[in-house]
Amino acid sequence: MPTNVVHLRDVQSRSKFFTIWEKHRHTTVHWLVECFAEFLGVFFYVYAGVGSQVPFIVGPILSIDGLSSVLQIGLAYACGIIFAITICSSTSGGHFNPAVTITLMLFKGFPVFKAVRYIIAQILGGYIACLLIYVQWHDLITASELVLAAAGTLDSALFTPQGPAGAFGLYVIPGLSLGRVFLNEFVTDVFLALVIWGSIDPTNVLVTPQLAPFVIAIAYAAAIWGFATPALAANPARDIGGRLAAMTIWGKQAAGGRYAAIAALTSIPATILGVFIHELFLTDYARVIPSAQREYMEVHLNHAHAHGKAASDVSSNEKADLEHNA
């Protein structure tokens, strides 16, 4: 461990209020700070992505061209992921997805009770983001509902991918086979899991910690561009949070029927399988950790040592990797 460690407090002073708060945030309320980081990360992801889905849906209904596109939606979700990881991951470890949290619990020993807290915070982040987006777009969403009602198609279109509720709750195109919808979700989520796990592999020479957020973001954008039309959730926090928001706005009929279970649950076994494949065939503990990754891990460990314990369970995992490869 390097001795010339410089903490922010060594070069910048802070007000008495925040100095006292920082003592508590690393002890009695650290769990709340971590959960807030997970909440905020999912909020960024959903706020950016759904914010582009709404104009994509209401634009054609209101005959307004050029408001959004599938390209824009993919890029928006990618931006949200970049913001989430770069701003929030240093506090919570950067899960932002219940499937990732559950997988870390199984493969890395992430505490069960802490995982439950994280998942609740993640879903809440998606829920609040969708409600705020609805308020911001309320007038145009209401106008689009009036147009559909005047055409006599509101009841048949509202809870579909082309209806106003479809920007928040995820719905399947009428007539599609749920079996193929499940396959589409499962395969895409395995692909995403492989990219995520490969990007955070500390021995990956080509993907440094600084590059990982962008690689993961591009993977999500590619998934949306290629496979969103047959129905894709990709993150239970976005799906469940958005669906609960739709039910808050439009009632129980916004639940989504049998597809809701596919959207909410499929990514969990898919992510577990993707990580298992990576661990089985691609992970190698005999590899050397590159300097960029080692510096990143040591930064987390020095922060943890400053407070006498690991700042997060992800930091603890990094410590184990460091000791294994020392």
TrEMBL record:
A Gene Ontology molecular function term of the record: glycerol channel activity
Keyword annotations of the record: Membrane, Repeat, Transmembrane, Transmembrane helix, Transport
Family membership: Belongs to the MIP/aquaporin (TC 1.A.8) family.
Pfam families linked to this entry: MIP (PF00230)
InterPro entries: Aquaporin-like, MIP, MIP/Aquaporin, MIP_CS
Transmembrane segments: 31-50, 70-94, 115-137, 157-174, 181-200, 212-234, 255-277
Record membrane topology: Multi-pass membrane protein
Protein name: Aquaporin 2
Gene Ontology CC annotation, any one: plasma membrane
Subcellular localization: Membrane
